[in-house]
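Encode chain A's predicted structure.
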Amino acid sequence: METPKSLTRNFGELILFEGKKPVIHESVFVAAGSKIIGDVIIDEHSNIWYNTVIRGDVNFIRIGRSTNIQDGCILHVSSGPNPLIIGSYITVGHGAILHSCIVEDYSLVGMGSTVLDGAIVRKNSMVAAGSLIRAGFEVPSGKLAGGVPAKIIRDLRPEEIDYFSISAENYVTYARQSFLSINGKS
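Encoded structure for chain A:
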């Protein structure tokens, strides 16, 4: 399959805020309706899906490589000490809210979840759909957290952890297919 040189062209809206413009790697897919504002850096092969808002206005946001931020997510920061840092090979499910927190590599944040200020979702961990990770809470590596407010539910099975990178790679493929289809090349 042909790899386009730039996936961001003609998609989403990149908005300058107080002299800071988002820096988006040319391989990133940003779907229509998305808005990326201010001090935001997104690394290669990540994908931002329809109607997502990434607002780096009062602090910075960093997103690693091959991470997928699915439809309708809200990513924001507070003016305090905590930026929003999302690692590589992460799946952030539809409608999730991430606010001034850290999500480490190879993790999954389920659909409709909220992760609040100063929380840390460690590498190879999972937040169940619809959960609330309260401010300052830490999800340890290899664990599933869930509920409102979330608590540690159990250890993740090896096949669940292995799925995190598969999910991220699947979304790199979906982004490429979407780009080609939208541009009449599929």
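The helical segments are 158-182.
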